[in-house]
Amino acid sequence: MRLAAIAACLAVAAPAMAQTPAALVGMYDGNQMDLATALELRADGTFRYGLIYGALGEDAEGVWRVDKDRLLLTTRPAVVAPRFVVERDGPAPGGALYVELDDPEILQGSSLTLAVTYADSPDPSYVDADDDGRVPVDPARTATSVAPVFPVLDVPLTPVALKPGQGRRLLFRFEPNGLGKADFRDEPLAIAGEGLTFRRWDRNITFRRSAETGGNKQ
User: How many Å apart are CA 2 and CA 43, to the nearest integer?
Assistant: First the structure.
């Protein structure tokens, strides 16, 4: 359910901010200049959440509970992470490495970014594939794995092992699964006098009671 769907007002006035679960029930918004987000805490212990930040958008439903001075959110059902799976794996001449997607339209005109790991470092190097899918690996180093990357989206890497000197032509398929779902697992929000605060997408977000619910803002 997207942000517009969770922005519906509660039918009753919300009580003032407190640390007891009953007092926290209500609608909250954390809107900022370039970010729109809302959170609904229901009396039955469930929640709805949505956020839009530029090209990013996410939502979640699940359960919430209070632990001392924190509100904890857990998404239910559990989110199945999006992933890339190998659709085809074949040889390539000259020891070259080629990587393509079965549906390049998901890149929306951008180049395919790849995480290449080398034998001399555990940290991946990021490169863009050429138009024909050829991956410009460093010829002076030994590539040990490669994985497609979505720079904007939080998609776990699924590296494919490479053998020295062996040319490969890989075709990946993208499985969106729970793409766009926030995978909260006891995600903590601090309960403070001014509202509920947490950090998301490198932003500090404070949820305050929505004026439309009739609740008081702290």
Answer: 21
C-alpha span between 90 and 40 (Å, rounded): 50
Enumerate the domain spans of the chain: 3-79+181-213, 83-175
Asked whether 209 and 191 are in contact (CB, 8 A), the reply is no
Distance CA 144, CA 116 (A): 8
In this predicted model, what pLDDT tens digit does every residue of 87-146 receive, in sequence order? 999 999 999 999 999 999 888 888 999 999 999 999 999 999 999 999 999 999 999 999
Query: At residue 24, what are phi and psi to the nearest 5 degrees?
Result: -85, -15
Asked if residues 64 and 46 have their Cβ atoms less than 8 Å apart, the reply is yes
CATH number belonging to domain 3-79+181-213: 2.40.128.360
Read off the pTM: 0.71
Helix (H, G, I), strand (E, B) or coil at 165: coil
Sheet strands side by side (includes 160-161): 121-128, 113-118, 143-149, 160-161
Please check whether residue 82 is in contact with residue 177, taking contact to mean a CB–CB distance below 8 angstroms.
yes
